[in-house]
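Listing S7. Sequence submitted for prediction.
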Amino acid sequence: MNSMDDIDGGADQRLSSPAARRNRQPILEILEAALPPTGTVLEIASGSGEHAIHFAAALSRLEWQPSDPSELARQSIAAWRKEAGLANLRAPLALDVTGRWPAIDNLAAVVCINLLHISPWSASEALFAEAGRALPRGGKLVVYGPFKRGGQHTAASNAQFDADLRARDPGWGIRDLERIEALAVANDLDREQIHALPANNLCVVWRRG
């Protein structure tokens, strides 16, 4: 599951997302503190691949495994990967979050950026169920995006964004963080931190207990 709506095509197969360019550095600062020093990070719904390039370049001791169900996205990730030439950035996997995930060697963390609000609730359920199953004890799940808190939007712009999403697809929409937290608890994932980031987004870190 992923939305390619904010991604622009270039002259080659590399796609570019304005949102990815804006948020990649603030997210990286969270990842630098939250992720284990070594191991493999599985990125769910990698989109254009720009996050993967940025994170793999900065976190050179980690193996970065991008994935996306979209062939167009995987072609873009592969093109960015070829240009970057990063030894720790793997070829993209064809992975839908709602399907059975493949075994990832030395898996240490799962990162999911801007997916839960542009996918059905079943994608949220699958993300936490599969992360809880696949991560080792102490492994991290990091999720970024807009959330409601206490059933309320955190900004008027988020309320408008939510209405727009639901008009496009009734199954989409900004999720209540409390409902997401319930999924985490049910799958043996303990919340470590909530970070408020620009544009009324949150970055939440869970640890497998």
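Caption to Listing S7: primary sequence and predicted structure tokens for the chain studied. Residues 58 and 146 are 25 Å apart (CA to CA). The helical segments are 18-34, 50-58, 71-84, 121-134, 156-168, 177-186.
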